[in-house]
């Protein structure tokens, strides 16, 4: 019974995520800023050469520091900084 509810919630959540038009998979705690090792909230694909693209991950701080320098080389971006502001997911069953 409660299992069905959880599945429904998961499907709804994935549906929202799929709206993002990016090839970069959703990020989680394993994704780390290439500059400082903090959890990354922005991932970009940089065009390094006609044949090779390179992914870089940034925490909020380092992304904002490097954004202007990288913008013209970015071919794909996933920006999850909204997660920083969003309230923690909590199941309130009080
Ligand atoms: Zn960083």
How would you portray this structure in words?
By secondary structure, this protein is an alpha+beta fold. The protein has 3 helices and 3 strands. A hairpin with a 5-residue loop joins strand 1 (42-47) and strand 2. The protein has helices spanning 2-17, 60-70, 82-85; strands at 42-47, 53-58, 74-79. The longest helix is centred in the N-terminal third of the chain and has 16 residues, at 2-17. The mean pLDDT is 83. Strands 2-1-3 form a 3-stranded antiparallel beta sheet. Zinc ion is lined by residues 33, 35-36, 38, 58-59, 61-62.
What features would you highlight for this structure?
three-stranded antiparallel β-sheet, binds zinc ion, 3 helices, 94 residues, alpha+beta
* Largest β sheet strand count, sense and barrel closure: 3 strands, antiparallel
Whole-number mean pLDDT: 83
Uncertain segments: none
Strand order of the largest sheet: 2-1-3
Q: Tally the helices: what do you get?
A: 3
| Element pattern in H and E | HEEHEH
Structural class: alpha+beta
As a percent range, the share of strand residues is 15-25%
The proportion of residues forming helix, as a percent range, comes to 25-40%
Radius of gyration: 16 Å
- What is the rounded distance between the termini? 19 Å
User: What ligands are attached or bound here?
Assistant: zinc ion
Q: What is this structure's SSE topology?
A:
Blueprint: H1 2-17, E1 42-47, E2 53-58, H2 60-70, E3 74-79, H3 82-85
Antiparallel strand pairs: 1-2, 1-3
This protein binds zinc ion (ZN).
Zinc ion is lined by residues 33, 35-36, 38, 58-59, 61-62.
